[in-house]
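Changelog excerpt

This revision adds worked examples to the README so contributors can see how folded entries look when concatenated. The first example is reproduced verbatim below.
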Amino acid sequence: MYLAAILTGFSRIWMGQHYPLDILGSSILGSLTSIVVKITGWIWNPIIERVIKDTAKE
C-alpha cells in the first residue's frame, strides 16, 4: 500500500499536476490523521466494549 502511495505521489509530480510540497504535505497530513484515529481507537474501545457488555447483561 505504501508503494502505491509513493508511486502515485511521484507520478503526480512527474506529470506536473502537483508541486512536491503538496505531495509531502498531504502525506504528512494523512499520516497524522491515521495516528490520531489509532489513538482514539485505543481510548474508546475499552469504553465501548464495557457499554456493550453492560447492555448485553440486561
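The second example, added in the same revision:
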Amino acid sequence: MQGLAALYGALSSIVLVYLLSRCVTRASEVALHDPKKSMVTLYLGAVQRFVLLAVLFAIGLAVLKLDPLACLIGFGLAQLTYVVAAKFD
C-alpha cells in the first residue's frame, strides 16, 4: 500500500509539472503582447497548482486512505528529480 501511495504522490507531481509547463508556455506567448498580463498568468498558474495540490493530497489521504509519509516522499522525490534534471539540461 505504501508503494501505491508513493506512486500517487509522484503522479501528483507530474500533473503539477505539466500544468507549470503549460502555464509558462502560455505566459511566454502573452508576454509578446502584454508583459503585465504575462505576470498575472504566472501568478494565477501558481495559485492553480497550489489549490490542485491541496485537492489531490486531500483525495489521496482522506478518500483513498493512502499513507501520508509515502505520499509525501513520492511527491518530494519526483520534485527532486525535476530539479536535478533541470540542472543538467
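Reviewer comment on example two: The mean pLDDT is 94. Residues 2-87 form one domain.
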